[in-house]
């Protein structure tokens, strides 16, 4: 097997490259490229490892013809176009916990820096001014900290703030009252937070709902003298409105680690009294960077080498133990989907994916992804198990997953049924020796076959001499039959023939087969 190729396009701890190599990948570390330069090289790579400096746009994904996975060594993925990645079948992963303590500590550090004006005091003192009377601070003990966003980082900030004897209130629509009690904080609405908080710290992702959450209007609702900290994402605060509020003295101080436009080499906020900033350093500690570098390299190589999926934002997780067990099922699922997709000419309204026996014990989501990928292969060359569920949803295809507890004829069975205007059409397969995918039924007729390469599917009336005439028709066309599989509904009734053929089957041959007496359907299939 050729080694998966990884591009590390942002500055990352050297452990990332080491882990990639230890786990069987080739790695190039090429940082600081422009989007055009990145587009020129990305086509060579199976995996891309990034931090926040690389923006993975639709154009970059279009140029990334071999790309299978993007790994964010960190938390925020607003620099990755996830819908475009999903549409192209590229998995996007992050490392959701590796830098959260470090980022929470940065928020606390900025809160102290604001409370005691540390940067200005430092600059003044080192300038020989000794302005002891200029720098009067505020105490944190007893003050109210308002958290906007109480997830991982917000939760850690809360625990540290409680340790500092602050009162913590939080606005987070997804925070349950029980969790708030567990965290020792008070759940409030946004207006309640704005009116009560002495310090506000933001810890939400940047989404359509959170963009400008501290807008001019909301800043006006804050308590006079509030101090604001943002270590989450630029774009959560209206920077122009913040500048006005600092100038007017309504906001007593603000500390930003993140800016709407990064790198922020200029800003109207620069130079404003009581304004502090750092260049997106929230995650920048040795500990956090080692954590996220190792995690991203483990996750990406696991996916590319073994098919394990961890912390993916656009597909279900699949552990390293599950992945090898599921592998033959995915091949079977994809084959059954491909078979159904090729045999059915009608619009499919819904698909049911049923598992029984050993298959019922498994994670069904990846099996569903593989069935849908096979099914939609005839519409798209780029469909795979990652983007197939999204494409299916886009097309309004209803997908049902059914797990049967019952014992059937096979130790393990996967059945895929399509509902069309002509009724239900179903194909089923099993695994031989737990590893070899094998078709066992087409449209209610038992036929056992390996689905591989070029195949010919024929439905005919069961009659003596038919097999001989097929043999001669194909022989006359110079086609060699590899395997021959036969099934029938009942003696003299409808019969199904599945032949594997050593070379592609020309249209003219299909016509000749069609003309044989008793033939109802002929189709060339490819797997
Ligand atoms: N400055 C830096 O270097 C770093 C910044 N970050 C950023 O910190 C942010 C938070 O990270 P985590 O705590 O790990 O994420 P998380 O997903 O654990 O928590 C986010 C919280 O925001 C809440 N939320 C979502 N929409 C909301 C809304 N409209 N109003 C209020 N709350 C809302 C969610 O319910 C969730 O509890 C992310 O944007 C991440 O990118 C993360 C690491 C480093
Ligand atoms: O993890 C995050 O969301 C961060 O913002 C950290 O960004 P960085 O990796 O330091 O560029």
From TrEMBL:
Q: In which pathway does it act?
A: Amino-acid biosynthesis; L-serine biosynthesis; L-serine from 3-phospho-D-glycerate: step 1/3
Top-level division of the source organism's lineage: Bacteria
Organism field:
Sphingorhabdus lutea
Question: Which CDD domains does this entry report, sorted A to Z?
Answer: ACT_3PGDH-xct, PGDH_4
Does the keyword section mention NAD? yes
Keyword list, A-Z:
Amino-acid biosynthesis, NAD, Oxidoreductase, Serine biosynthesis
Q: What is the lineage of its organism?
A: Bacteria, Pseudomonadati, Pseudomonadota, Alphaproteobacteria, Sphingomonadales
Q: Where is the D-isomer specific 2-hydroxyacid dehydrogenase catalytic domain?
A: 6-314
**Molecular function terms in GO for this entry?**
NAD binding; phosphoglycerate dehydrogenase activity
Similarity comment text for this entry: Belongs to the D-isomer specific 2-hydroxyacid dehydrogenase family.
Q: What is this protein called?
A: D-3-phosphoglycerate dehydrogenase
Main EC class the enzyme belongs to = oxidoreductase
One Pfam family name is 2-Hacid_dh_C
- The segment(s) forming the D-isomer specific 2-hydroxyacid dehydrogenase NAD-binding domain are 108-282
């Amino acid at each position: 097997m050729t080694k998966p190729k990884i591009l590390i396009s942002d500055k990352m701890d050297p452990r990332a490259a080491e882990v990639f190599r230890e786990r069987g990948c080739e790695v190039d570390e090429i940082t600081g490229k422009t989007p055009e330069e990145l587009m020129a090289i990305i086509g060579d790579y199976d995996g891309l490892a990034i931090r926040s400096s690389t923006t993975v746009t639709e154009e970059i994904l279009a140029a990334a013809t071999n790309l299978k996975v993007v790994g964010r060594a960190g938390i925020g993925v607003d620099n990755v176009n996830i819908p475009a990645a999903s549409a192209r079948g590229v998995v996007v992963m992050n490392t959701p916990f590796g830098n959260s303590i470090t980022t929470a500590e940065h928020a606390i550090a900025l809160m102290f820096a604001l409370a005691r004006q540390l940067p200005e005091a430092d600059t003044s003192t080192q300038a020989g001014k000794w302005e002891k009377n200029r720098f009067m601070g505020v105490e944190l003990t007893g003050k109210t900290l308002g958290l906007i966003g109480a997830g991982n980082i917000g939760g850690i900030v809360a625990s540290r703030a409680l340790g500092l004897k602050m009162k913590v209130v939080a606005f987070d629509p997804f925070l349950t009252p029980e969790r708030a009690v567990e965290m020792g904080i008070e759940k409030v609405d946004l207006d309640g937070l704005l009116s009560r908080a002495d310090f506000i710290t933001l810890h939400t992702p940047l989404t359509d709902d959170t963009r400008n959450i501290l807008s001019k209007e909301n800043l006006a609702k804050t308590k006079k003298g509030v101090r604001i900290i943002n270590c989450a994402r630029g774009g959560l605060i209206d920077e122009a409105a913040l500048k006005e509020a600092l100038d007017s003295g309504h906001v007593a101080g603000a500390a930003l680690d993140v800016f709407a436009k990064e790198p922020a080499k200029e800003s109207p906020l620069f130079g404003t009294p009581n304004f502090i900033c750092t260049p997106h350093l929230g995650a920048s500690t040795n500990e956090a960077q080692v954590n996220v570098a190792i995690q991203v390299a483990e996750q990406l190589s696991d996916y590319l080498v073994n098919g394990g999926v961890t912390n993916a934002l656009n597909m279900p997780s699949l552990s390293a133990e599950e992945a090898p067990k599921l592998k033959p099922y995915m091949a079977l699922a994809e084959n059954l989907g491909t078979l159904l997709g090729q045999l059915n000419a009608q619009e499919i309204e819904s698909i049911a994916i049923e598992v029984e026996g050993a298959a019922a014990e498994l994670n069904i989501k990846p099996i569903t992804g593989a069935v849908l990928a096979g099914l939609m292969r005839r519409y798209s060359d780029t469909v795979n198990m990652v983007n197939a569920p999204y494409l299916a949803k886009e097309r309004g295809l209803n997908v049902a997953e059914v797990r049967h507890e019952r014992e059937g004829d096979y130790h393990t069975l996967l059945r895929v049924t399509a509902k069309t205007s002509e009724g239900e059409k179903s194909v089923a397969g099993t695994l031989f020796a737990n590893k070899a995918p094998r078709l066992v039924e087409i449209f209610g007729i038992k036929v056992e076959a390996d689905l591989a390469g070029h195949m010919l599917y024929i439905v005919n009336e069961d009659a003596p001499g038919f097999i001989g005439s097929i043999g001669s028709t194909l022989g006359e066309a110079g086609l060699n039959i590899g395997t021959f599989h036969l099934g029938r509904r009942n003696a003299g009734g409808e019969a199904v023939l599945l032949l594997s053929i050593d070379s592609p089957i020309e249209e003219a041959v299909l016509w000749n087969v069609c003309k044989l007496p008793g033939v109802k359907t002929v189709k060339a299939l490819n797997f």
